[in-house]
Amino acid sequence: MPLKNKKFAGDAYGIPILNFEDVLAGVVEQPGLGPLHTEFDGKGNAYTTFFISSEVVKWKLGTWEVVDRQPCYYSVGHLMIPGGNSQKPFGKYVVAMNKITKDRYLPTGPEVTQSAQLYDISGDKMELLVRLSNSWENPHYARRMSSKI
Known about the structure:
- The chain has a domain at 34-134: Thrombin, subunit H.
- 3% of the residues lie in helices and 42% in strands.
- It is built from one helix and ten strands; from the N terminus they run E-E-H-E-E-E-E-E-E-E-E.
- Strands 3-4-5-6 form a four-stranded antiparallel beta sheet, with no helix packed on it. The chain has a four-stranded antiparallel beta sheet with strand order 7-8-9-10, with no helix packed on it. The chain has a two-stranded antiparallel ribbon with strand order 1-2.
- A hairpin with a 4-residue loop joins strand 4 and strand 5.
- The model has no long low-confidence stretch (mean pLDDT 84).
């Protein structure tokens, strides 16, 4: 335990820096190009967006293997699984949100209309349910919560 043993690589501005090798749990081999953001489904899976290869990749925690991937129709950035960044994710869906809209909105230009894709993640494989355009200006790190909270 690097924190408990106070084993640090250095100290920047009074903040201890952990050794990368001491906190690395595993490496996902060949996941995609340009990883950006990761969310979790609470069933042992992680979902990461890849900006350059324009896809959402599902991978297994512990084995670090890619188990599914779905293309996005834009340069994907943030994604959102309800509760996906908490200790108890409760989502059956993932929303992949764009950083740069392309191909679908060329008449209006690449930054006017924003888009997203909604996937069902309740099964073993992700299933694209809908591609949607919206009026959000770069939906940066959007969250969804239960009405019961």
